[in-house]
Amino acid sequence: MKCYYCALEGKDSEAVAICIVCGMGLCMEHAIRKDVDVWEGGYPLPSKRVKTPLPRILCPACYNALYAE
Predict the structure, then answer these.
(1) What is the mean pLDDT of the chain?
(2) Pfam families of this UniProt entry (predicted)?
(3) pTM to 2 decimals?
């Protein structure tokens, strides 16, 4: 799999990760690592937050959509 952002720039880079939200292939330059809170539990609510956030990989577009202020 190739990095989508590099392909847009005319470069040919192998992907090292996949965005957890959109599934886009990403190289090391474009992959963004973010520790995300995870909730566990099912119905009935409420769910409980897992003690330790889990690392996730996001592309720049999904990162900006989720965390930009």
Answers:
(1) 93
(2) DUF2180
(3) 0.78
